[in-house]
Amino acid sequence: MSLSLVLLLVVAVSLLDSCIAADWHGYVFFYTDVNFGGSMTRYSVHSSQECYALRNVDVGKAASAKWDNLVQDGTLGSDKKGHAQIAFYTDSTCQSAAKTFSTKAENFPTNFALNGIKDKIAGFMVMETSETVKGTAAPQWLQPKPTLGNFDPNAQ
Predict the structure, then answer these.
(1) Are 33 and 50 in contact (CB under 8 A)?
(2) What is the SS3 assignment for 11?
(3) Which of 40, 68, 107, 147 could lock 153 by a disulfide, CB 3.0 to 4.6 Å apart?
(4) Per-residue pLDDT tens digits for 61-89
(5) Is 130 within 8 Å of 46 (Cβ atoms)?
(6) Domains detected in the chain
């Protein structure tokens, strides 16, 4: 095999690898009270562009939310400079108007009433490349470990 062919193969594999989305696994935490108070429910998130419907017992109970380890780079954001966003919806199919937040910023929504969606959230989606829903994911709810009221993204 000639050196130029080997070099071409290496470049091609590198380009393909860079086009494939990186694996990630994150969490979204919903709280029943503002400022991350009350009961907390944690959802496991493993892909973008998929609508995650909340479990029936969680629909209409979210007053605030936090997230951890979500994909941060994407092609969204008001500046179009490569930000991913998380969108919250009032329907479980992610078709209603979305309230969005950057996944990069640690400016979590402390009171969904300010966004007009307190106690109305039924679904969410991590938007990496567009606002288009490409699938639905079954709720990946995880029983949280008890904490002393502190945010513990590693609790399982």
Answers:
(1) no
(2) helix
(3) 68
(4) 999 999 999 998 887 655 556 789 999 99
(5) no
(6) 24-142 (2.60.20.10)
Closest CA to 93 of 66, 60, 57, 132: 132
Are 127 and 76 spatial neighbours (Cβ–Cβ below 8 Å)? yes
Pairing of strands 26-33, 64-68: antiparallel
Give me the residue label for tokens 């606002």: 131
Give the position of tokens 């470049």.
11
Of 91, 149, 88, the closest CA to residue 114 belongs to 88
Q: What is the pLDDT of residue 15?
A: 38
Is 66 strand, coil or helix?
A: strand
User: CA Rg, the chain, in Å?
Assistant: 18
Among 27, 36, 28, residue whose Cα is nearest residue 151: 36
